[in-house]
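TA notes, week 10

Several of you asked for a full example with nothing omitted. So below is the full record: structure tokens for the whole chain, then the designed sequence directly under it. When grading your own attempts, check the secondary structure regions first.
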């Protein structure tokens, strides 16, 4: 799939999933789930203060009375009730509403009612970028701050699982760095070379890893052909961008989202069910695209224990 429109079309072909929304009494959240429902992407189950939800909906001309609503005025309790709803299989995915991220993630990680697995949890952002002929997957921009080498292996695995849901059988993974040669003083280049070697030896399977690569060599064929040697496996055609740390990822995410007219959706991977984790600053369109991505993951990967 090369666009979010293609993701939408595929989701509409599948049985409509349910999304449990934790603390849904927020106008942007309600606007996003109403539009997602209208587009045939998901059926919302709203957890939170029912009176506030109905009041917000009325003031903003949003019709939510036909949605399932679980009245729980306490935000923390509403969050744990929502994640438990997914944990018990009554909904297919879990979405953050107007609740702080720390509380939301504590619910995701709760051993009794949460969605944790033995795998590392990580965030995967999917971008549809103007003038780029494919979807681009970026990890990790929001969850894993300073990944170790072994954590980077897990980040690659999680990102590849999302890419495969979108139809890429063997994703091309570019571990990003400032330069494309190994410099012992730059840990990102050292890790990238080790990851490439691990993939060559079959220790990382189901993808192609080629690094270290600078952003331009990973993304722009003209730059790659001009600068790279012939033995590189990625020549401006990377599917997955593995950033070296959360600062680099967060900056890249916000630049792409804010300056390039890109569409973007993001989910947590490594969980028992897809988790929509968006920022309050994210647009309603980003929230809807994230719901679509989670819906696709939920329905095409439902037979597996984790995303």
């Amino acid at each position: 799939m090369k666009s979010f429109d293609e993701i939408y079309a595929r989701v509409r072909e599948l049985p409509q999933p349910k999304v449990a929304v934790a603390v849904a009494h927020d106008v942007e959240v309600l606007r996003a789930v109403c539009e997602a429902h209208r587009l045939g992407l998901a059926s919302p189950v709203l957890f939170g203060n029912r009176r506030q939800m109905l009041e917000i909906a009325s003031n903003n001309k949003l019709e939510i009375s036909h949605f399932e609503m679980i009245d729980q005025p306490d935000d923390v309790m509403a969050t744990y009730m929502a994640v438990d709803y997914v944990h018990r299989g009554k909904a297919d995915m879990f979405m953050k509403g107007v609740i702080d991220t720390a509380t939301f993630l504590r619910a995701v990680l709760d051993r009794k009612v949460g969605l944790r697995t033995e795998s590392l949890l990580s965030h995967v952002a999917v971008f549809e970028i103007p003038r780029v002929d494919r979807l681009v997957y970026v990890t990790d921009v929001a969850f894993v701050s300073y990944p170790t080498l072994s954590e980077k292996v897990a980040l690659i695995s999680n990102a590849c699982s999302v890419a495969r849901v979108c139809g890429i059988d063997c994703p091309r993974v570019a571990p990003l760095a400032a330069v494309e040669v190994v410099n012992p003083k730059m840990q990102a280049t050292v890790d990238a070379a080790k990851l490439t070697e691990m993939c060559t030896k079959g220790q990382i399977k189901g993808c192609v890893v080629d690094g270290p690569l600078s952003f331009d060599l990973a993304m722009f064929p003209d730059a790659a052909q001009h600068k790279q040697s012939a033995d590189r496996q990625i020549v401006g055609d990377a599917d997955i961008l593995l950033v070296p740390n959360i600062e680099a990822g967060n900056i890249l995410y916000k630049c792409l989202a804010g300056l390039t007219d890109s569409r973007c959706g993001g989910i947590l991977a490594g969980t028992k069910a897809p988790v929509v984790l968006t920022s309050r600053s994210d647009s309603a369109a980003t929230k809807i695209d994230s719901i679509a991505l989670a819906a696709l993951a939920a329905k095409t990967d439902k037979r597996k224990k984790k995303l």
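The mean pLDDT is 93. Use that as a sanity check on your answer.
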